[in-house]
Amino acid sequence: MNHTDHVNLLRRGVSSGGGVWADFGSGTGAFTLALAELLGPGGQIYSVDRDRGALRAQERTMQAQFPQALVHYLVADFTQPLKLPPLDGIVLANALHFQKYAAQGRVIQQLKSYLRPGGRFILIEYNVDQGNTWVPHPLSYQSWAKLARESGFAQTQLLATVPSRFLGEIYAAVSW
Ligand SMILES: C[S@@+](CC[C@H](N)C(=O)[O-])C[C@H]1O[C@@H](n2cnc3c(N)ncnc32)[C@H](O)[C@@H]1O
After folding, report:
1. Is 69 in the pocket of ligand 1 (CB under 6 A)?
2. Assigned CATH for 3-175
C-alpha cells in the first residue's frame, strides 16, 4: 500500500477542515500522514506509539511531507490511561490485533473514552478472524461491528477495503 491507498481507506471517515485526532499504534506513520493530508492545516494529531524509534522516523517523514501539520508525538502504551484532550476522531490501524481477543473490548472502551460526544473511531484491520505469528488476533469486519456495538458505539459502517497479499483483505470501518 502507498500513501494514496492510506488516504483512500480513511477518506470517507474523516471530514476535512481540522479537528483533533489521535492515531494509536501509529508506527512509522502510514495513517498519521494520511490524516495530516485529510485534516489539512486546521488539524491536530496525537500520534501514539510505544516504539520511540518508529515515532522519530515518522516525525522526519512528516516534516518532509507535511511540514505545516501540527502533530504531538507520544511514546506510550495505548492500553494504559493517557492524558489527551477530547478527540474528534481516533484511528487504530493494524494495532488492535496485538491484543488478545479477551482484552480487545476493554482496550476499545478505554480509547472510546477519549472521544468527545459525536466523535468517530476508525478501525483498520485484516478482514479475518484467524491469526498467525505476525498478526496474532485479527478481527473481521463482522466481528468488529459486534465488538463496537458491545463497546457502546451506536453505528458502524464499512468505509473501504483493499486487497492484501497477506491475509487477503484490509478494511477500514468507522464507528460513532
Ligand atoms: C503493525 S504496526 C502498524 C503501524 C501503523 N498503524 C500502520 O498501520 O502502518 C503496529 C504498531 O503498533 C504499535 N503498538 C502495538 N501495541 C501497542 C501498544 N499497546 N501501545 C502503543 N503502541 C503499540 C507497535 O509499536 C507498532 O508500531
Report:
1. no
2. 3.40.50.150
Statement: residue 128 has pLDDT above 80: yes
Count of C-beta atoms within a 10 Å radius of residue 80: 8
Position 16 pLDDT exceeds 80:
no
Among protein residues, the one with the nearest Cα to ligand 1's atom 12 is 25
**21: Cβ below 6 Å to ligand 1?**
no
pLDDT(17) > 90: no
Burial label, 166 (beta-carbon count in 10 A; 0-12, 13-18, 19+): exposed
Atom 9, ligand 1: which residue's CA is nearest? 30
**Can you tell me the distance from the alpha carbon of 81 to that of 110, in angstroms, rounded to the nearest whole number?**
8
Domain chopping of the chain, boundaries: 3-175
Look up residue 143 and give its DSSP letter.
H
Residues 91 and 125: beta-carbon distance below 8 Å: no
Task: Determine the average pLDDT of the residues in 27-52.
Answer: 97
Q: pLDDT, tens digit, for every residue of 62-98?
A: 999 999 999 999 999 999 999 999 999 999 999 999 9
Ligand 1 close to Cβ of residue 25 (< 6 A): yes
